[in-house]
Design a protein that fits this description.
Layout lengths: L6 H28 L4 H9 L18 H14 L1 H21 L2 H12 L5 E4 L15 E4 L5 E11 L6 E11 L2 E10 L5 E3 L13 E11 L4 E2 L5 H37 L3
Parallel strand pairs: 1-4
Antiparallel strand pairs: 2-3, 3-7, 4-5, 5-8, 6-7
The structure holds flavin-adenine dinucleotide (FAD).
Flavin-adenine dinucleotide binds next to strand 1 and strand 3.
Length: about 270
């Protein structure tokens, strides 16, 4: 197997490294200390095509591969872990499942502006009483005669939640042989009954705001169903599988930054 980077991959990597060093690293400590949402960095990541890297160009993405994506997440995370998470959520947890499971309309109307980074997407699986075992979720969506759903419940720890235009929400939509069935819904922040709590106070990656989102009788039109009715759990798990690439790249970038700083400090310190 050839692990050499192609010329394109090297070019993207260099672009990301320069951007991270010159524009992100100088403000990273301030972002974390102040828990400030990095609007200017998000806008620059959009300009550079980093918000929908592996999405086809016809749907607003950069049409690149996952190696490029991982290299960029690694560099961005090396400079600022919060910025790495923001980028990773938009790419892996929102754009990727809409690209894989979305209708043509969803790809044109919802995916394209999100992959261009003009608006942001989030992923809503976790609930106050449902974490690792996501099957225990309580959020429900009742299918109506016209194919729309009425959504009730809440999701928490939703990264980018306070800044997202839309979130993929996983909800129980029925039962089959005593087993709960789930459906994935793309829920827009301007739907009636959608309410975002103030962002969480976190111990780290503080600039990557996360929050709880409440849904009270939110009517979700049928055009916003992602994938098939009853297939939501598969979509949730498949999305998390893809998300591991971003998580691994973030961890690598953060580890690199830690060792680089430790070496500088160890060489400076006289005891
Ligand atoms: C930085 C960050 C960003 C996040 N962003 C999002 C997001 O955008 N969208 C979203 O939906 N969620 C998000 N989450 C939530 C995340 O998915 C959950 O934290 C995760 O699913 C774990 O759930 P929990 O925190 O409730 O922990 P729990 O499930 O309560 O687990 C607590 C501990 O118990 C252990 N444990 C759990 N079950 C078992 C078992 N059966 N046997 C043995 N040990 C067990 C776990 O390994 C863990 O150590 C985010 C979390 C973090 C930390």
């Amino acid at each position: 197997m050839n692990f050499e980077l192609t010329e394109d991959q090297q070019l993207i990597w260099q672009t990301a490294r320069d951007f991270a060093n010159k524009e992100i690293e100088p403000i990273a400590a301030e972002l974390d200390k102040e828990a400030r949402w990095p609007t200017e960095i998000v806008n620059r990541m959009a300009e550079l095509g980093f918000m929908g890297m592996a999405i086809p160009t016809e749907y607003g993405g950069s049409g690149l591969d996952n190696v490029c994506y991982a290299l960029v997440v690694e560099e961005v995370s090396r400079a600022c872990a919060s910025c790495g998470v923001i980028m990773s959520v938009n790419n892996s947890l929102f754009c990727d499942p809409v690209n894989k499971f979305g209708t043509d309309w969803q790809k044109k109307e919802i995916l394209a502006p999100t992959a261009r980074g003009e608006i942001l997407g989030a992923y809503g699986l976790t609930e106050p009483a449902s974490g690792s075992d996501a099957q225990t979720m309580k959020t429900v969506a009742e299918r109506q005669g016209d194919g729309s759903y009425v959504l009730n419940g809440s999701k928490n720890f939703i990264t980018v939640g306070p800044h997202a235009e839309h979130v993929i929400v996983f909800a129980i939509t029925g039962e089959d042989n005593g087993k709960k069935r789930h459906t994935a819904l793309i829920v827009q922040k301007d739907f009636d009954g959608y309410e975002v709590a103030p962002h969480d106070e976190k111990m780290g990656i503080k600039a990557a705001h996360s929050s709880t989102i409440f849904f009270e009788n939110v009517k979700v039109p049928k055009e916003y169903v992602l994938g098939e009715h009853g297939q939501g759990f598969k979509i949730a798990m498949n999305t998390l599988d893809g998300g591991r690439i971003g998580i691994a790249a973030q961890a690598l970038g953060i580890a690199k930054a830690a060792i680089d700083k430790a070496i500088v400090y160890a060489n400076e310190r006289h005891s």
